[in-house]
Amino acid sequence: MTDSWVNSAEILGSDLPLELSGTGNRRALLMDALREAVRSGRLAPGTRLPPYRSLAADLGLARNTVADAYAELVAEGWLAARQGSGTRVAERAAPVTPVHRPRTPERVARPVHDLVQGQPDPSVFPRTAWLASARRALAAAPDDAFGPGDPHGRPELRRALAGYLARVRGVRASPERIVLCSGAAHGLRLLAEVVGGPWAAEAYGLPFHRELLASHGVGTRPLGVDADGARVDGLTRRDRAVLLTPAHQFPTGGPLHPARRAAVVDWARATGGLVVEDDYDGEFRYDRQPVGAVQGLDPEHVVLVGSVSKSLSPALRIGWMVLPQRLVAPVVAAKGEREQFSSATEQLTLADFIESGAYDRQVRRMRQRHRRRRDQLVDALHARAPHVRVTGIAAGLHAVVELPPGTERSAVRAAAWQGLAVEGLGDYLHPGAEHASRGPRASRAHRAGAAGGAGNADAVRAAGGADAVRAAGPADASLVPHRDGLVVGYATPAESAYPEALDALCRSLPPAGPPSATAAPAPPPPSAAP
């Protein structure tokens, strides 16, 4: 109905009228009026709203119109409804949203709970063990450690890393091939300067990395991602490099399939391209055997990039690149004549921390802690939202909560009004990735060939013949089926805050049901309201 009208009703006998005016759908106008009343403070947190029947009678609306408006505002976090206590204004003074990506101007409040992926709980930094290593390192430090720094990095740390990465990640490298940097982002900047572009990158990944490369004149194009990792069959001779997260695809989860690992190395050998392996949270695995680094397959065509940001703290600003021999001198030259980025004393401390075994103990402790956090997340969702699917849980510091189509943005908004910072899966999608298939034959070919990676022509032919083979060529590897979901980081909250964060997450999720019913969780039956 699209007539123009004005009406008002008293809210529980108060002097606050609810004004509805304008042209359009009456449910939408009612929702706008209620939002504005809450936003302006005329409806304070905790204010009890009238039963939907009463408000419908006062406004001359259908009962279902008011009930649906209440339900949708509950889903968005403006209202709260509990069995037996009616519908009230939610106990939030202002909306809050994820804090680290400035994409929306209305970000005005700090979140109460933080489930944004990206960093460990800073309270668990091993201060006592780190201090012991710092004392030993400083006592044993040579005099040149306090002079101008070598851009290669301290030799003590490069030796310690060479041994650790060989033992834990299957990396093949001498200390001379390791160049220290201030983190993975710094490493990517140096490689962009030395290697040039264009690069291929996984269709789902950190926007910050893509933006960083673009700021250095290196464009990226997307490679499709499926259950077996990146679709490396989409690489071409034009690509100078490919950026991958093989140990645990970020953020969708899962390791790169062995056949695709071999295929991407074959591509690099045949074309002279470079595989840039971001070893993102590769040390944190829970339900699977260790997955070695791709670098171990061919050290001359793969760069391993890593850091201590997830295992210790991003505040340390220590990372590393394990480089092919031909890139060591150019990367060091790009850094400059002196070390400008990482403190020599912290490098020495980390070297002792690794050599003494304290780093291994810290990783084991964090692995146990994160596994317990992950299990709490899975159990909470199983109990309170059994209709959602949780993926990417075998490793890493986050999981993906898959949502019904079309509900991702409303779930993020609902979470914000619960005081919860969490991100949608769509925030990580490469802007050049395709969301829609190219017709049924191409879709069938894409699904048949996705699992096989390179060399999947037989499977593609079975799905659709010669036309499908052509449709599933390299360009098809950029196809990304639309997925709605939340990327839930479970490492950041303190122990005491984590249960409440999970509770806020569960309250934010859409209910089970067909797509038309998933836009908003419904409140308790209106008949329960007084």
UniProtKB/TrEMBL annotation:
<keyword id="KW-0808">Transferase</keyword>
<keyword id="KW-0663">Pyridoxal phosphate</keyword>
<dbReference type="InterPro" id="IPR015421">
    <property type="entry name" value="PyrdxlP-dep_Trfase_major"/>
</dbReference>
<feature type="domain" description="HTH gntR-type">
    <location>
        <begin position="24"/>
        <end position="92"/>
    </location>
</feature>
<keyword id="KW-0032">Aminotransferase</keyword>
<dbReference type="GO" id="GO:0030170">
    <property type="term" value="F:pyridoxal phosphate binding"/>
</dbReference>
<dbReference type="GO" id="GO:0003677">
    <property type="term" value="F:DNA binding"/>
</dbReference>
<dbReference type="GO" id="GO:0008483">
    <property type="term" value="F:transaminase activity"/>
</dbReference>
<feature type="region of interest" description="Disordered">
    <location>
        <begin position="506"/>
        <end position="530"/>
    </location>
</feature>
<dbReference type="InterPro" id="IPR036390">
    <property type="entry name" value="WH_DNA-bd_sf"/>
</dbReference>
<dbReference type="Pfam" id="PF00155">
    <property type="entry name" value="Aminotran_1_2"/>
</dbReference>
<feature type="region of interest" description="Disordered">
    <location>
        <begin position="431"/>
        <end position="457"/>
    </location>
</feature>
<dbReference type="InterPro" id="IPR051446">
    <property type="entry name" value="HTH_trans_reg/aminotransferase"/>
</dbReference>
<dbReference type="GO" id="GO:0003700">
    <property type="term" value="F:DNA-binding transcription factor activity"/>
</dbReference>
<dbReference type="InterPro" id="IPR000524">
    <property type="entry name" value="Tscrpt_reg_HTH_GntR"/>
</dbReference>
<comment type="similarity">
    <text>In the C-terminal section; belongs to the class-I pyridoxal-phosphate-dependent aminotransferase family.</text>
</comment>
<protein>
    <submittedName>
        <fullName>PLP-dependent aminotransferase family protein</fullName>
    </submittedName>
</protein>
<keyword id="KW-0804">Transcription</keyword>
<dbReference type="Pfam" id="PF00392">
    <property type="entry name" value="GntR"/>
</dbReference>
<keyword id="KW-0805">Transcription regulation</keyword>
<dbReference type="InterPro" id="IPR015424">
    <property type="entry name" value="PyrdxlP-dep_Trfase"/>
</dbReference>
<keyword id="KW-0238">DNA-binding</keyword>
<feature type="compositionally biased region" description="Pro residues">
    <location>
        <begin position="521"/>
        <end position="530"/>
    </location>
</feature>
<dbReference type="InterPro" id="IPR036388">
    <property type="entry name" value="WH-like_DNA-bd_sf"/>
</dbReference>
<dbReference type="InterPro" id="IPR004839">
    <property type="entry name" value="Aminotransferase_I/II_large"/>
</dbReference>
